[in-house]
Each structure stands twice: as C-alpha cells, then as structure tokens.
Amino acid sequence: xxxxxxxxxxxxxxIQVYCKAQSQQxxxxxxxxxxxxxxxxxxxxxxxxxxxxxxxxxxxxxAVKDRTTFEGRRLFNIYIAERKDTSDWRKKxxxxxxxxxxxxxxxxxxxxxDRKTVYFTSEVETGKxxxxxxxxxxxxxxxxxxxxxxxxxxxxxxxxxxxYDLGQPxxxxxxxxxxxxxxxxxxxxxxxxxxxxxxxxxxxxxxxxGPKINTGGTENYPFMHPSGKLYFSSDRPGGKGKLDVYYxxxxxGKWEDPVAMPDPINSSADDFAFVAEPNLQTGYxxxxxxxxxxxxQFESTVIRKASCDTLAENNYCYExxxxxxxxxxxxxxxxxxxFGDGSTKGIGPSVIHCYPGSGSYLVQLDVxxxxxxxxxxxxxxxxxxxxxxxxxxxxxxxEGVAGQGIKFDADKTNLPEWNISRYYWNFGDETIMxxxxxxxxxxxxxxxxxxxxxxxxxxxxxxIREACVCKNIVITxxx
Length: 479
Fold this sequence. Notes:
The chain is mainly beta. Helix content is 5%, strand content 44%.
C-alpha cells in the first residue's frame, strides 16, 4: 500500500513539474476584446481595411427600434470601425447601406482585389414569399460595388439556390478563387467549404474541399490568407470548444491536415471568422466567450529577427607546417609532431590534426636526421590557443520526422561575461519556447529556420545585450 501511495505521489510530482514547465512557456498570442462591441448585441465577421475594419452587427437601428426580419429576428448589417490612433478606436460607427438594409441581412462579406467590389451574404428570396412567417428563406452570395458607404448594383452569385444556403465568402489574393460555406446536397456534413474558380470572367462549378477539410459536422467562415493558408471554423471532434479556428494549406495539390489555432484564440466557446494581416502578426476573430458574439483582436507575441547570424560550427582541425623543410628537401629528415593533447605523434613536414575541443595546447616539433640519427628536440614549439566562436549555439539534429519529438539545447552557447537571462526559441512555424533545453514536435513536413535568441541581464548602465543565431532543419513524413 505504501509503495502504491509513493508511486501516486511520484506521478503527481511529475505532472506538477510538467505543468509548471508548460506554464513557463509564453503565450503565442495576446487577445483583446474590441472597444466598439456593444455587449447587448452581436458583432461578427471582421474584414480588414485601411485604417480600420468592417464587421457585421445586429445592433439596434436606433435607441428604441430594431431592424428585424419578417419572422422577428434582428438583422445583421455592415459597419465600419475606424482607428483613432494605434491603440484606440473611434466610438462612432459608420453603416454601409444597401437596398437590402432595412428588410434583409447583409454580411458576412469580403473584398475583391480592386477593393471596390464586395461579395456579401444575404437572403435569396426578396419577393412577397419572403414576408410570410412560414417561409424558409435561404442565404446566398451577392456582388455589389462599394460607392462611398453604399453598396450599389447588387447582383446575385450564379450558384445561389432557394433550396440551400451559400455564404461567408472569401476571395483569394488574386481574385481567382472564391471560397464559401454551403449546405448544398452532396457534402460531407451540415455545412461544408467549397470553392469556385474564375475562368474567362465566369465562376466555375462549386468544388467541395473534400473529406480532409470537411467533416460530418460544421465547417464555415473560410478566410484565404495571402500566404496561401486557408483558415476556417469547425466543430469537428478533438477541438477545444464548440467552433474552433483551424488552418490548412495546399501541398502538391492536396490539402494538408488542418491544424487548430492555439490558446487564447481557441477557447471552450465558439471561435470563428478569423482574419489576419499579411504578416500574420495581428488580426481579428469573433467569439462568444463572454455570452454574446464579440470581435477580438489578436497580436502575435512571437519574436522573430529579420536577420540572424547563421550558426558557425567550431573548427578544431589545424595544419602544422615546417617551412624550413622546403630548404632541405633533399636531406633525409623525419619531422615528428607532438600536438599537446596526448594523442600519437604526427609524421611529416606538413600534418593535419583535429583537437577534441577548445583549449591551450603546446605544439612541439622534433627533427630526426635519418643519417646521423641525431634528434633536434623542440626544433619548433608554440602554444596553440583554440577558442570557440562567441555565439549562442543550437545543439540538435539537422533532420527530423513530422509528429516525433526533437530535443534542442543551448548548452554550448559561448558568450563570455554574459549573465544570460533568457533563451528564446523561434521554430519558424509560429511556435516559440523559452528555456536552455526544449522539446519540439513539428507537425508538418518542410524546411524550418530555427532562431535562438539569447538575452543578457541589464548591465550597470541598463544596456541589455542580445545575440541571435539560426539553423535549418528538414522535417519529413513518416516513411
């Protein structure tokens, strides 16, 4: 019984140590609830524009009047939130109006590359049938021109239907591919992701993204980032909450396995409608983690240097040469080198010797006259000082396998007189760690550039020294 209790205590201690180590790792993202959220109503589906964002809200038309659908649900309409400065937003919101604003939903939406053409979600049926409370209206995608703060020349997307929904459009950076969510027949589940290709000015037939992306549940709110990453929301098994944000990429014509975004972007609530700036350092998403749907801003806490010194390997191999041997190349001499590290002698007027590491070594040369047998001891002698390169040092393999843990350490870091305060690792895949020794698992194949950034405690003058090195690692799939 005592053994069992001790065993339980031991396991509990390991878990505590592991959790403590995990808690010491920095959060990759900082999340902030936006100040223009109403609290009582819903704000969703941000779209990044110059000096602000567009988003959808079902907030009241006035202090006492709602805009509602025929069956009594509040309408979503499009608003602009403008930046006041780098850290604050203007309280007054500007509404984007259209001929549909008073009776039908507008949004979610996206911009075409010209930043003037808007693709947005709204109801398909706008005639008399739509006013009947028993009528089940469906969403479709509509295209319009943004003129000032008005959507004009509204026209329907060719694959809208009165039998199923299409919506939440997102265009690729070149405008050639339109991604959207739909529950059209033939899908994998309740709502799937599709795309259409623009061919000779016409949108081709919708293509389902397939079972690797779509599940038996709900996939929606696609966002095609300029980098080629496709972000979307899903309630697939294994997530953190209800809807979670995932991303994937095309690799050799196939979609990679979706990867869930980390805390605090994903939570136990619904997290969806993720968008990001081109540099992926900041962006926005929607979440109901505080009851109603609100918009949150995320900022990456990842430090990645624009340039880093490439890791230099220490060279412990040296060539010893007896220059005078050239003058007496016809004389029968033997040159015997002692390297000062306890190894066997080297023979010849020129020898190459590799030392075990840094240090101070006494090199000696004895010259033997092969005719007289006379030995000139210590004909040449000198101290060889071998110093390691002054740099942070990444110890770890050059290759690895996706899904398998890899150990890295900075034990060989050589920064004399530095009182090092932090070892910061950037693995080139939007993940970071802190510590002299770290365990890393790369999820996908590829070549990753690892940066190790070493920071010293402030010197008496308050100056903080920092040094950075990098190396590549190639990650392959399991054979």
